[in-house]
Records
---
Amino acid sequence: MTKGILLVNLGTPDSPSVGDVRKYLAQFLMDPRVIDMAPIARLLLVRGIIVPFRAPRSAKLYQHVWDPERGSPLLYWSRLQQKQLSEDLGPGYVVELAMRYQNPSLENALQSLRQKGVDSIRVIPMFPQYASATSGSVIARVMEIISRWPVIIPVSFAGAFYDHPLLARAFAAKAAHINHADHDHVLFSFHGLPLRQLQRTEAGGHYCGKAPGCCQTIDYRNKHCYAAQCHRTAALIAAELAIPESKYTVCFQSRLGKAEWLRPYATAVIRDLAAAGTKRLLVFSPSFVTDCLETTVEIGKEYQELFRREGGEELQLVEGLNGSPQLAELLTALALEQPEYSMA
């Protein structure tokens, strides 16, 4: 019996050219799980405003991180993760890689597994915390593709792994060479989401955003809440590194548009810390297992410049998990776990 494993990350343009970046942004932002508004309004916003203005700027940023030999860092590290997992699982497994947007495409990766005759497929969305715009979109697209197959083989999906002990240990290992006591404060910066998307994850509608500090802890009422999962991830990493609660802050980055997003905003926290006299800041980005624009450029460059303008001295970004052996161990565990939910 041969088992198929499919790793899925968000995506990357095929090149840092404006045309390829425009194509990537259009596919990404037209996903109704990413921008959840009426189709016509989304089309006008994305095609008429966001993509034309954002693509040239984003292309310049991609050129900043694009390696002449490796290409896209996200794709490079993702292929290495695929290779490591394939070696760790050994015979009896076929490991494919896909991006939710652009290439390698989900459709081609699933077709490859089908052509290789696998008896089942285990899909691992590479997002520690669940969000409809990331894991939810991957799951929905996989089910849409497979539903058209004449024979639907058993398919299972790895759930959110925000509280997996191997995730916290992996990030702690990345920071093992850094003495956090030398830093005045630690930030756990997670990718932001519109607040309305979180409120929709609670079926009852009586808890999210209504109870004071509702995201600070996680229980049966908010177990699907992205923000609560982020706080839990931060707490577990902090515990691994013995960082006291008073010395770290959870914040959210990459806000887009004028809608209310998850707070506190990373830029506001950085300004406040600098104004309060913080000179050295250590930053983790635990919503990404692989370094990308949001880590190396947004945090490592733009937030560094912001912090210094506001009076800080050094903002140090902890490297993503990328090709670490700890991440390989985590992916192996997720591949071998009993299916959390499946379709067959």
---
Amino acid sequence: MNYQEALDYLEGLNVFGIRLGLSRITRLLELLDLPQERYRTIHVTGTNGKGSVSAMLESIIRRSGLHVGLYTSPHLSSYTERMQVNGQPISQQEFADCLSTIRAYVEQMMAEGEECPTQFEVLTALAFFYFAMKQVDYAVIEVGLGGLLDSTNVIVPEISVITNVALEHADRCGGTLEGVAEHKAGIIKNGVPVVTAATGIPLEIIRQKAEEMNTDIFVAGEDFAAAATGFDLERHTQGLSFNSALLGISEENFEVRLLGTHQVQNASLAIMAAELLRNVEPKVDSDVIREGLNMVSWGARFEQMNCGGREIVIDGAHNPAGIKVLRESLDLYYPAKERVFLLGILHDKDIGHMLESLLRPSDVVVVTPPKSDRAEAAAELVRRVSGRVSHVEAYEDNEEALDRALELAGKNRLLVLCGSLYLVGGLRQSLLARRGRERGEANG
């Protein structure tokens, strides 16, 4: 199987959709000889920030000299981004080879009359198998959907992290905030410490689950805290002060190479989790934590880019909580800058609240549909944006929309790409290609 054949096979698995449950992934991993048990893991869930926290923890562990895997979803431009070892994505050929192995066991399951695993279950098995093949010491595993019934929830980690809990995927996670919280809390394992930034009712549910599982819980704002100490837009960094009376840390300063107001709290979760990891892993110390945060990279998370002399921010915010933080970050870092938004949203999102949080009357907006069958139609999005901003246009073609947004932004306005990772990922690749051509021409 080559990489294109692997993609075709994965596309074929999409017909099974999203089916929560652990029976299929459990059986598939048994046939693969339980690869997920051959290394230690950290499990990360939450409504927002779980990808950033996962990236931070991976960077910290890698800086310690340990071999570390990272499994995240979704990807921005290629499935190979989802599984990395020591910061390097799996190669296309390795991806295809691992999938060939897994496909044989999927076919065996079906021949035995069992259900076919879903696409995400196959990808999860592929990641676990690949990490075992590469003999990683640790793997940081990001939950795909919810937690309790997510296919990643077959691991018994060293530490569980629940970033926060807001109402998302309610149709698959109980229909209420309480139901979503119960699904997030579902990753808590017996005796495995849990770190969280949840508040209110979700925190109460997580506390109760931790008590049932006889495990320690460490809560942001109670057992540890962080505060922003400044930022440097040119260096793409921000400073923070971390403290934890529980750990005997009165004040320790760090710098994280990710912008966005939310990254201060995300960094505090990563620091706390790393401090707990020190109990079982002596290679992780304060210097390693500091250096790891300062070298972390995570695309499309308030990512700054300059293309053709235009200032651009790329952000994968795709729900009301994420959009609210994006607006706060824009107001902090670019308080007086006029903005052009290139926006595409999935129709099953809370579009009204997202637009209300994001936009201000002076903004200019270009809308275009994400590459998904769940995309909100451009005409409908224009209707909902109209009246909120000074000017709005729609383009069905994403590249045409990008050309127009760049034109409207010029060199005086800030261009912001956001709304859906299905849109942002492709546009980011296009901008990187354009920037590469510019640099090539400049050097030619």
